[in-house]
Design brief:
Elements (H helix, E strand, L loop, with lengths): L5 E4 L8 E5 L4 E10 L2 E7 L5 E7 L3 E5 L2 E4 L19
Length: 90
């Protein structure tokens, strides 16, 4: 029996929550770092070891696939097929 897919908004996640987000080339993990003034700031880890920030609206849709929150985007690829690989030294 599979869990039902649900939709929530980004402002319903607490600070520190992990989400999957689509970058230009692949899917990456991000964390909710700040919620202020109608924007949510996500901290994204890049494969090079650096981090960067993305700002999204509070009403940005989150798709729950089981227990995994995924920021909704228009890309046709599946996150399992195009997940960002991190440096193996870490």
């Amino acid at each position: 029996m599979e869990a039902a897919d649900t939709h929530i908004t980004l402002d319903q996640l607490p600070t520190g929550s992990r989400v999957l987000v689509r970058s230009r080339t692949d899917w990456r993990f991000a964390a909710v770092s700040k919620i202020v003034e109608q924007k949510v700031t996500l901290t994204v880890c890049s494969p090079s070891g650096r981090t960067y920030r993305l700002r999204r609206d509070l009403d940005c849709q989150i798709f729950m696939e089981g227990l995994i929150p995924i920021v909704v985007c228009d890309e046709p690829d599946d996150w399992r097929d195009n997940f960002g690989r991190y440096d193996s030294r870490w």
